[in-house]
Amino acid sequence: MLRVIVLFFCTIICSAHLVAQVKTDSIVSTSTKVDSSQTSVIDGKLIKSGDKIHPIKDSLDIKNLLDLPEAAALDKKWLDELYSNALYDTIYKSVVEMSYEPVEYPELSTDTLKARLARLNARTPFNVEYNASLESVIKSYLKHRRKSFEKLMGLSHFYFPMFEQEFATHDIPLEMKYLAIVESALKPRARSRVGATGLWQFMYGTGKEHGLEVSSYVDDRSDPIKATTAAAEYLNRVYRIFNDWDLALAAYNSGPGNVNKAIRRSNGATNYWNIRHNLPRETAGYVPAFLATMYIFEYAKEHGFKPERPDFQLVQTDTVHVKQMISLNHVSEATGIKIEALQFLNPAYKLDIIPKVEGKSYTLRLPRTAIGTFVTNEDQIYAYANAEFEKREKPLPELIKAESKITYRVRSGDYLGKIARKYGVRVSQLKQWNGLRGHNLKIGQRLTIFPKNHNVTTTTKTPKKVINTAGKQVYKVKSGDSLWSIAQKFPGVSVDNIKEWNDISGNKLKIGMTLIVSK
C-alpha cells in the first residue's frame, strides 16, 4: 500500500514538471503574425472566434472497420464445408477406436439378436453369425448413434438406388451398399487423412486405375455413379482372389496383401473372425461396423428409427449433357434452384464449374422440375454463362496486346520496384507475368514486360516537387519523429493534413526535411 502511495505522488510531481517545461521543438519562425486573442490554428487553418468548426474524420480510426462481404461469404462456405465432415469423422473414429466391451441395452435381448442375425444370414452371402463382439458393436450403435443413423437413413433414399443398380449390373451383393456408410457416411466429398476421397474412399492411384478422372475442375471419385461403378469393379477383383465376401471387405479396406499376411499368421484360417486379431486395427473394426450397420438398417422399423426426409429422391432428378463451360451459380440463377441443392446433386465438380473439354462428356444433374426450363432455354443460359465468364479478371490488362511485350534483361542494381516504375507497371504484374513468387532477381535474368510506356529505354529521374513554405508554419524533422508524433505537437493537425500539405504518399521521413504544419 505504501508503495502505491509513493508512486502516486511521484506521478503528480512528474506531471507538474512536464507542464512547467519550456517547449524546445525546432520550429522555424516565419513572417506570419497571428493574433491569438482573435484567431487560432485549428486543423491547420486560421479560425476566427465564432466560426463553425466542422469535424474531420480521424484517418487512424478503426472502430467501424468492416470485412469485405465477398470474402466473409467465402469464409462461411469454407467453414460450412469443414463442419459438414462431422458425421464422417464420427464414423471413422468409431471404426478405428472400436471397443468390444459389453454394452447395457435392455431393449435388445441376446436371444432376439441371435434370431434376427440368423434370418439376416440366411438371405445374404456375408457371414452374419452371432458373436459377442458383434453384439457389443450393434448395441453401442443403437445406444449412442441413433440421430446419426436417422440422418444416414434419410440420405440412403437418394444414394442406395444408384448403388443397387450398379451392384446388380456387376453381380455384387446388394447389401454392399452399406459399405458406403462405413467408408464415407454417404458424403460424396469426404476426404480421409491420407487423401482417400468420395463415397467409396478411392486413393488417387486406385481411382485412376479404374478410370476415375481427377483434374483441377473434376474429381470423379466424388461422382456417385462413376465411383460406385469403380467400387463394384474393385470388389469383384478382390472377391475373385479370396472367394469370400467378408475377406473381400477386409481387402477393400487394407489391401489383399494385409489379408494374406493375416491368413498366414493365423495358420491358414480363412474365416474373417478367426484372422481378425492379425489384421490392422482399423480393418479389425471395419467388418463389425459394416455388419452392425446392415443389421440396424434392416431392422430399423423394429427399433423405432424415424429417418429424416431427404431433400431429393433419385427418381425426382435427371441429367443433361453440358455443351459449354458453365458454373453451378449460372445454373442456379437461370433455374431458380438453390446453389446448395445443385452442389449436393453435382458433387464431382470441385470448383462448382462444369468444364468443356475436347473428347470428354460432362453431365449436370437437376431436379426434374428444372430439366424442362434448362433444356428449353439452353442457348440463352450458355450465352449468359459465357458473358459472365468474360467479366472475370483477366491475367493481362485488357488494353495490352501480346505483340507489345518486351524482354528486359536484369542489370546490376535492378529490383522489381525500379523496373516497374521504369515501364509504368505494377510489381504484382511483373511477378504474375514472369511466375515470380518472391522479389529476388539475378543479374542477366530475362523478364517479360507489357509496358504502358512502351518506348521507354532509359530511366528518367522524376524532378523533385518544390513545396512553397512562404507564409506557413513549418517544422524540421528530427531523429525519432513520425508523422503521428509530429501531428500531436500541433493541435488540430492530422496525419492526413501533413501528407496533403507536403505531397507525401508514404509514412517515411528523413531527418532535416522541412514540413508544413499549417495551411
Instruction: Return residue spans where pLDDT drops below 50 for at least 5 consecutive residues.
Output: 1-9, 11-34, 57-67, 396-403, 454-463
Helical fraction: 40-55%
Inertia-based shape: elongated
Give a short account of the largest sheet: 3 strands, antiparallel
Mean pLDDT: 78
**First and last CA, distance:** 51 Å
Find the count of extended strands (DSSP E, 2+ residues).
Answer: 11
Radius of gyration: 37 Å
Q: Percent of residues in beta strands?
A: 5-15%
Which class best fits the helix and strand makeup? mainly alpha
Query: Strands across the major sheet, in which order?
Result: 1-10-11
Work out the helix count. Answer: 21
Features:
single chain, 519 residues, mainly alpha, two-stranded antiparallel sheet, 11 strands, 7% strand, elongated, disordered N terminus
Protein described:
- This protein has 519 residues and is mainly α.
- Helix content is 45%, strand content 7%.
- The protein has 21 helices and eleven strands.
- The model is unreliable at 1-9, 11-34, 57-67, 396-403 and 454-463 (pLDDT under 50).
Would you summarize the structure shown here?
A hairpin with a 2-residue loop joins strand 2 (39-42) and strand 3. Helix content is 45%, strand content 7%.
Topology:
Elements: H1 2-20, E1 27-28, E2 39-42, E3 45-48, H2 69-83, H3 86-96, H4 110-122, H5 132-144, H6 146-169, H7 179-184, H8 204-209, H9 224-242, H10 245-254, H11 256-265, H12 272-275, H13 281-298, E4 317-321, E5 326-327, H14 328-335, H15 339-345, E6 353-354, E7 363-367, H16 368-376, H17 378-390, E8 406-409, H18 416-423, H19 427-434, E9 446-449, E10 474-476, H20 483-489, H21 495-501, E11 514-516
Antiparallel strand pairs: 1-10, 2-3, 4-7, 5-6, 8-9, 10-11
